Structures are given as C-alpha cells and as structure tokens.
C-alpha cells in the first residue's frame, strides 16, 4: 500500500485515538503467557513470550491480508464476470490466435467499459506481439493482456497525496450528486483518525440540510471536529470561518465537502473555482488535494465528469465508489489510461474498511483471480 496514513508521532502525555499497538486479544495472550512463565520460574520465558507473541501477531496480520484480498476479489466479482470470465470463455478450446478471436476480444473489452482508446491500445500491443511470434496461444495472450493493463498504472508509487511539511493537509472534495461523496469523506476521515491524525470536516455543501447533518454524524462516528452553518449559507463563508477556526488549533487534516453539482452546469462549476480561490487565499498552497468522487456504476459518464471537473479545478486524485455493485469496473482501467490523475481509493462495500487505498497490482490480481481462489 502507499502508506498515506502513517501513525503520527505524539508525546507520551497525549494519547492517540485508535493507535493501540496490539489488540485486546493479543494483550490477553501476552498476559496469560507471562503469568504462566512467572509461576514456572523459567528464566528464558521473556524471550520465548516475545517470540511467541510476535509469531501470533505475524500470523494474524497475514490472515488479515488474505481476508482483505478475498474481500477485494468478492467486490470485483461482477466486473470479473463481465471481463475476465468472458475472456476465459472466448479462449476455451482455442489453439491459436487469429483475426476472429481478436475481433471478439475487442467487443468484450469495449462492453466491459475499458473504452475504445484503451481497447485499441491493448489490441495494437497484442497484434504486434503476435506478428513477432511472441504470443502463440490464447493463454499467453491473457497474460500479455494482464501485463499491458497493469502498465497503464505505471508511476502510481510516485503520485501519493502531497502532504505539506508544515500546517494542515487540506483536501477539497468534489463530485456530482449521488456518488456517495459525504459517506466517502467520512470513511477517509476515519483512516486519518485511526492513524492518530486530528481531523476537521468542513460542511460546505450548504444546498442540502441532509448533507450538513450527515457530515456531523460522521464527525461524531470517527472522532473528527465539524464546522457547519445553516442550509443556504454561502459555501465560501463556511470555508473561511472553518479555516479561521483551524488556525488556532492543531489540526493535521482538513477535509472540505462541497455541494454535488452537475458537471454540465457552468455556474455551479464556476463556484468551485471560487471555493478553491478562497481556500488558497486563506491558506497558501491549499488545497493540497482536489479529489473527485466518481460512481463506478455510471460507466463512461465518469469519463466526462473527470474531464470537466479537471478542466475547472485541476484534479489531483480520484476515488471510485460502488465497484461492488457494477459490472463496469473496467472504467478503472479506462480512467488510468486516458488521464494522468491517480486513483486514490476504491469503494467495494458499505463497511468502513471497504473503502480501500488503491493498489494497482492488488487490483489487477484480484480482477484476474480464478473463481476457485475465492
């Protein structure tokens, strides 16, 4: 993983929420083992206990990682069925790569929402390798397809969120209505608070009273402060007051929720420019991250949203929600191919942990995983 949520060092006098080193179950194991060792007077017991506890924690970590990967596989099941399973069915019984196979493969890729440009790029690469006799059978073609798709994500390790050396890290979140923007903000805030960061949520979506209330609920749930005003207030004034509030307090992260808006409405998009200017005027260099939330179930419509929002405010990151509810997960590949905007998170369910930091290698492995691995 990219490690954006590293534990923040605090003084010993200041407890860090959610940052306990080991779980209560592991602590119980340690305490019981120590009691037994003490009663037996084993002078080597301390080292043995330490090694035993470390082994248990390592096993639990590995098991958790397997569980998380399995959860990702399950979340991508519909996309895998629309893409990889159909590719497997196409290749079944085929002994060679011919023009008819490649034409059928093209149809599968396009209908799985990889997009025309991405599909043509993939097939050009495949045809070149076939002509050079590098690919001789469909199974080798499948591996080449997987490798080429992964290459679209090259450089992701170098595109982490740019956290400032001093002062709070400000994230401005944008998106159209109904993409799960406020919920995603709550889940991102949880990741920061769990790693010991102090978070401020700014309810600048003043068009909907429900959005303000929803953000307050998330603040209480994840342990973040919330600055909010009344429905109908000027969003820029909310942000201005919030940054004033933050100035005298030691916040590590500030996440600004903006009103959902149709990307085709020029006046609403222009308001985003104003919000960005207000943030920058109040805090030089901010916002440090401008994140667009996309609903993966909308497929190709996500592409036009990304293009227009990027033209207006200059996006630095994307989050795709609801991947578990769609067969259109190929849009992840399409976006990575067409835009130089890194995907920060993907949503594969309703739980807090179902908002996952996007790891291209893990994503592609889960997408191409065989069903019997589930």
Note down, in words, how this protein is organized:
This protein starts with 23 loop residues before the first helix and ends in a 6-residue tail after the last helix. The protein is an alpha/beta fold and 374 residues long. The chain is elongated and about 70 Å long. Strand 7 and strand 8 form a beta hairpin. Strands 3-2-4-1-5-6-7-8 form an 8-stranded mixed beta sheet, with helices on both faces. Helix 1 runs antiparallel to helix 2, helix 4 packs antiparallel against helix 5 and helix 5 packs antiparallel against helix 6. It has 14 helices and 8 strands. Helices cover 52% and strands 11% of the residues. About 10% of the residues have low confidence.
Topology:
Blueprint (H helix, E strand, L loop, with lengths): L23 H17 L4 H31 L1 H6 L1 H8 L7 H16 L1 H16 L6 H14 L17 E6 L6 H14 L4 E6 L4 H14 L2 E3 L7 H13 L5 E6 L7 H17 L6 E7 L5 H13 L3 E5 L9 H8 L4 E5 L7 E3 L2 H9 L6
Parallel strand pairs: 1-4, 1-5, 2-3, 2-4, 5-6, 6-7
Antiparallel strand pairs: 7-8
Helix pairs in contact: 1-2, 2-14, 4-5, 5-6, 8-9, 10-11
Helix content: 40-55%
Radius of gyration (CA) equals: 24 Å
The chain-level structural class is: alpha/beta
Specify the number of helices. 14
Defining traits:
374 residues, alpha/beta, eight-stranded mixed beta sheet, 14 helices, 8 strands, 52% helix
What's this entry about, in short?
The chain is elongated.
């Amino acid at each position: 993983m990219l490690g954006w949520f590293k534990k923040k060092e605090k003084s010993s006098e200041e407890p860090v929420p959610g940052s306990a080193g080991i779980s209560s179950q592991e602590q119980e194991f340690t305490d019981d083992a120590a009691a037994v060792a003490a009663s037996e007077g084993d002078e080597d017991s301390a080292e043995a206990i330490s090694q035993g506890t470390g082994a248990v924690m390592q096993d639990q970590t590995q098991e958790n990682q397997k569980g998380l990967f399995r959860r990702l596989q399950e979340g991508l099941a519909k996309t895998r069925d629309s893409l990889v399973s159909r590719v497997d069915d196409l290749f079944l019984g085929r002994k060679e790569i011919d023009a008819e196979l490649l034409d059928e493969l093209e149809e599968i890729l396009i209908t799985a929402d990889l997009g025309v440009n991405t599909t043509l790029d993939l097939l050009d690469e495949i045809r070149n390798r076939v002509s050079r006799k590098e690919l001789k059978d469909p199974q080798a073609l499948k591996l080449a397809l997987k490798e080429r798709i992964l290459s679209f994500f090259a450089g992701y390790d170098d595109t982490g969120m740019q956290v400032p050396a001093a002062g709070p890290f400000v994230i401005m979140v944008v998106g159209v209505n109904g993409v799960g923007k406020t919920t995603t903000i709550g889940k991102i805030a949880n990741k920061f608070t769990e790693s010991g960061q102090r978070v401020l949520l700014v309810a600048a979506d003043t068009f909907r009273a429900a959005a303000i209330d929803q953000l307050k609920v998330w603040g209480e749930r994840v342990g973040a402060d919330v600055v909010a005003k009344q429905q109908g207030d000027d969003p820029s004034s909310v942000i201005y007051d919030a940054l004033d509030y933050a100035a005298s307090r030691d916040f590590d992260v500030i996440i600004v929720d903006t009103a959902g808006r149709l990307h085709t409405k020029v006046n609403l998009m222009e308001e985003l420019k104003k919000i960005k200017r207000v943030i920058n005027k109040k805090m030089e260099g901010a916002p440090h991250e401008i994140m667009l939330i996309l609903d993966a179930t909308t497929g190709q419509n996500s592409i036009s949203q990304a293009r227009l929002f990027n033209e207006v405010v200059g996006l630095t990151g994307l989050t795709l929600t609801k991947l578990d509810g769609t067969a259109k997960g190929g849009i992840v590949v399409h976006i990575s191919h067409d835009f130089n905007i890194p995907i920060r998170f993907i949503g594969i369910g309703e739980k807090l942990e179902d908002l996952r930091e996007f790891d291209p290698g893990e994503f592609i492995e889960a997408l191409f995983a065989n069903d019997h691995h589930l």
